[in-house]
Design a protein that fits this description.
Length: about 250
């Protein structure tokens, strides 16, 4: 009798969880993910998409510790490639978008100075993503070192654990921040104007941030997970990424 009850409970659990997928998403994509979900659900209205946001490094650690995610959308290719090589992912990492950096300041700044602006005595605190946990932090440090100003300003850094936390620090605790350009296309950021409050960081200073996606082992037998994975490469998804400041290859 107990065995039959256990079987029934197992069947019921699988029935209730059918059609639900968990997507681990790098923090920089938090500004675009709601629109991506909305468009996906227009095609697959029965699929419930649960999004878990975080720094790419922390999400990777969670996956290695058996977090029940179906898909991982990282902020660069290194982490998805590691997960694939170590057997946590079933698809080879594929680039879904390329991210870029931007300066952001509450106050009006003279962005004609370029990256040299960060050396100004008026700028005492600079928010950047932690390069130990966030790929955008790695790109930021690369840009500053290539511009030969890293050592001059490193004492000004306030580190955000993720790129979304870096945006918060930029707006609340520092004079300027280097953030994901995608954040500036959020409706909440519409009051900040290009050339006045923000400007793109010269892309020649850092390696393009190729953002990678993989289907994880938990998504192996999930048609819903594969549907979402394929949707990310659809023309509609590419349009959404472009609208949020990403570069998408044709």
């Amino acid at each position: 009798m107990r065995f039959k009850i256990l079987i029934l409970l197992f069947i019921l659990f699988n029935f209730l969880s059918a059609g639900e997928i968990k997507i681990a998403v790098a923090a920089n994509v938090s500004y675009a993910i709601d629109e991506l979900k909305s468009e996906f659900n227009k095609i697959y209205p029965e699929t419930k998409v649960q999004v878990i946001l975080g720094s790419t490094g922390k999400l990777t650690a969670q996956i290695k510790n058996q977090a029940p995610y179906h898909i991982f959308m990282g902020a660069n290719m290194d982490y998805p490639e590691t997960l694939y090589k170590e057997g946590f992912a079933i698809t080879k990492p594929k680039v879904y978008a390329k991210g870029s950096l931007a300066y952001l300041s509450l106050k009006e700044r003279d962005f004609s100075k370029g990256i040299e602006l960060l050396k100004s005595n008026e700028i005492k605190k600079i928010a950047i993503a932690n390069p130990k946990t966030a790929p955008y932090g790695i790109a930021t440090v690369e840009a500053l070192k290539n511009a030969n100003i890293y050592d001059d300003i490193k004492n000004k850094f306030i580190y955000g654990e993720s790129i979304s936390q870096t945006v918060i620090y930029t707006l609340r605790a520092t004079d300027i921040g280097i953030i994901a350009k995608s954040a500036l296309y959020s409706p909440k950021m519409k009051n900040y104007k290009e050339g006045i409050n923000w400007e793109s960081v010269d892309t020649k200073l850092y390696t393009p941030i190729k953002q990678g996606i993989v289907v994880l082992k938990n998504g192996q037998n999930s048609k819903e997970a594969m549907n979402f994975y394929n949707f990310i490469f659809s023309p509609k998804a590419k349009e959404i990424f472009e609208n949020f400041g990403y570069i998408v290859d044709e």
